[in-house]
């Protein structure tokens, strides 16, 4: 009696095509998964092997936030604190109001990559990367005051973060088209095999997407509001570049979907978006706004959970700095350990290994820890910031709540300015104290802390063809080739001949040099 063959059974004939699974062995699919050849119903694998599929991709929370300026005292620290409190691993910033381009390290240790206009304080974009993630950054490119890109070394392929700030509704159509042309050119420069995520304030409303089944590849069914012309332009751009608007693909309460509140709370719209390549759409597991995050902005923090694994970076060998050692403790520890050194060692190499280990262990035990940066925001101001955040978390439902929030916002700005002035006055008093005690080292450290401004670093360089290089490996290779060319050219073998000798020094020149010497200074003859 022949039994019925189920739809999922495979034939026992080796020549039967249904016996073999589709796809070639060892080839990963577009989502990065390997073809499944063996399954267990639940829990561990049937062969009692470790299931490495779960740890293949680690979820990372990538966010974007229009903070409406970072120039007021304490604003950057508030944003970084909210970033840490909400467990955001990478945050894109719109409207920084910073001039210039480059990167620097904040007081809390985060790396900040920014791009702004040369003149004026409008617009500006930035990306904040924590210290743990910054070691995986390959390079960045400040394209304009509206676009900045960051490349991260991830597995299975590199990840490109593009933070944008699109023109507002008051801008002309030419400015909007110039923005999208620049953004398209930026994406074209990135290899197609790499992952690209576009985040930022697009100032466009895609509207309700419930009935847009013909755009299911570009959008989900959970958009809100009414679509405008800028929204149509954004959808057209996503269709041309094969991008998906992720925060329209997940069903949430409306409060977790809108990203901007109009003045007076007349309406709430969705104008900030996180776009990802359609090929990597399944890697985004969630996209939601966080109304509880507060920095005094009318925009909401938008966060998407993206599953990707960072490439393991080999930790560099730390060389102890003698200027950061407790010298007295090092001497005592070294003398105690050197007495325990075996006396019967004849081999010089073995003696050196013992001595080297003693020096490294003693230096490690007596290393001075760098004191943390002094926090100028007082506990009283932090309490006001917390009250403002709690009011926003509970929801601003009435006119009284709006007035209360505006009052707390003004109070936070006022107290931050006063705390910063008090912090500056304390540094001035410390400078006077160091000057009276003739402590020049600490004196100049405080002067540098007081007068030092943010000096951004830049790591971009042009190649021989004039193209901008932002990848650190390419920058180093360009410098290596340039320096090697200085010694391999024809000019290095040229013979320099002097046609005539220099004249002797005149007595009048000697008299002029002596008169030009400063008083009360000692000089010696060479």
Overview of this protein structure:
- The chain is an alpha+beta fold and 526 residues long.
- The protein has three domains: 58-310, Deoxyribonuclease I, Chain A (4-Layer Sandwich), CATH 3.60.10; 327-365; 375-479, no CATH class.
- It contains eleven helices and 18 strands.
- The longest helix is centred in the last third of the chain and has 38 residues, at 399-436.
- Residues 1-56 have low confidence and may be disordered.
Short description:
The chain has helices at residues 75-85, 131-134, 173-188, 229-241, 327-339, 348-365, 379-394, 399-436, 440-451, 472-488, 507-515, and strands spanning 58-66, 90-94, 101-105, 111-115, 125-129, 137-141, 147-152, 154-155, 159-165, 195-201, 243-245, 260-261, 268-269, 272-277, 284-290, 301-310, 461-462, 468-469.
Question: Helicity range of the residues?
Answer: 25-40%
Mean pLDDT: 79
N-C termini distance:
113 Å
Can you tell me the overall shape? Answer: globular
Discrete helix count: 11
**What is the name of the CATH architecture of the largest domain?**
4-Layer Sandwich
Give the CATH superfamily of the largest domain: Endonuclease/exonuclease/phosphatase
Number of domains: 3
- Largest beta-sheet characterization: 8 strands, mixed
Which value, in Å, is the CA radius of gyration?
Answer: 31 Å
The poorly predicted ranges are 1-56
CATH topology (level 3) name of the largest domain: Deoxyribonuclease I, Chain A
